[in-house]
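Long-time lurker. I teach an intro course on protein structure, and each term I like to show students one example going from raw sequence to a predicted 3D structure in token notation. This year I'd like something fresh instead of my usual example. Would anyone be willing to generate the tokens for the chain below so I can use it in lecture? Attribution to the forum is fine with me.
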Amino acid sequence: MNPQKSVRLLEVLQGGTDFLKKNCIEQPRLHVEYLLAHVLGIPRLELYLQFDRVLEERELAPLRLYLRERSKGVPLQHLLGSVDFFGRNFLSDARALIPRPETEELVERALTYKEAKRILDVGTGSGVIAITLGLENPEAEIEAIDLSSQALDLARQNARRHEVTRIRWHCGNLLEPLEKIESIRPFDLIIANLPYIPHNDIPSLAREIAFDPIMALDGGESGLDLINRLISQSPKFLQSGGYLLLEIGKNQEQEVMQALREHHYQEICVLPDHQGVLRFIEAVQP
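-- Reply from a regular --
Happy to contribute to a lecture. Here you go:
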């Protein structure tokens, strides 16, 4: 999109779409709409009522910068500084994994456990799972753990943004922080969206993925290093009859089910996401 002193909004949309399309960005028109609405400070759909609006250079300059960054693969969510999750808007940046739509389905499943009043979110990242469960289930006591102090800073910002004050945040590796808490009460639900991508597969992922923290992606050689460790650690912290609920990668369900059986979990169930991929596994602590 060439610099101009003024140009109509519709022309900007068309030019920006062509630019992103040439740079192999999926859904180029939609991304231009989000970025332009962000620059102008208006809802995206409002753009359709302002096609003839003339944009000045002071409005075009930041848009050009955003388009250049997006063309390089910088995620839309990082440019906007936020992401929508479960009908709410959360801060999003390079400190934590961008929440994916499948994880909304993980939360939907968690909300079916009506008796779960003590909940632990492992690998909380930006905090969207813990905060959403807290908002949807106001009576629940929620704790959340992440290895990254930067991710926890973002999670706390999101908690303040949504005025959720009762979550206890812990920094550490999987369930190790709980070992230091005397008389920790067991949980009714442990939920986790841990890294599950095999280490050697990471370089071949979409270029946008490169902007996520590597520790939020790398599941070790098999992709299941952290998930298997959580499976082994969780029985100590789960109530009898409590649930372990995991998000996993494609074609990992058989290995995860075997690990759950080896640690004596019961009622093991594999659930598909909306695309039909076996994405979630739940199991019950005997």
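Some talking points for your students: The chain has a mean pLDDT of 95. The chain has two domains: 6-72, 86-284.
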